[in-house]
Write a structure and sequence with these properties.
151 residues, mainly alpha, 0% strand
Length: 151
């Protein structure tokens, strides 16, 4: 049953093997067929993973599961005990605890940005001038090496 396979010695006159025709350039073998050899491969302009990586929330789910467990004999959940502890810390004067409670209860306050100073240099420009600036980085008629920044 035990067979020993012996290799044949290489002949000094043997020619190197020709590459298989299937190894040639894909464009030649497919005849420029979309989707590769089978026609089921990647198509131009389409993602191979259109849905993206699946969203996994294992940590959040575990925290919610643990928070819902009973904490003590009184039947309070761990989430309720944690909230009570946070209140006690806030009443002792912890600004961070107060901020956390307010952010969770009322939501974080919206931040606003004043953009009027950014808009001023563009206010007197025409659409054509703005398009030219976006495409070239220069204002129309200002290719003399002066600043490319808006006035």
């Amino acid at each position: 049953m035990n067979q020993v396979l012996k290799r044949r010695p290489k002949s000094k006159t043997s020619k190197p093997a020709k590459p298989s025709p299937r190894v040639e350039n894909n464009a030649k073998t497919t005849g420029e067929r979309l989707g590769g050899v089978t026609g089921k491969g990647f198509m131009p302009g389409r993602s191979g993973n259109p849905g993206g990586r699946p969203r996994t929330r294992f940590l959040v789910e575990a925290i919610r599961r643990i928070a819902a467990e009973p904490n003590d004999a009184s039947g309070r959940t761990k989430a309720e005990a944690l909230a009570e502890k946070l209140w006690k810390i806030a009443f002792k004067g912890s600004l961070a605890a107060m901020r956390e409670i307010m952010d969770r209860a009322e939501g974080k306050p919206e931040q606003s940005i004043n953009v009027t100073q950014l808009q001023a240099p563009f206010a007197d420009k025409t659409d054509e001038q703005l398009r030219h600036f976006v495409e070239t980085g220069e204002w129309m008629g200002e290719s003399d090496g002066s600043s490319n920044r808006p006035n």
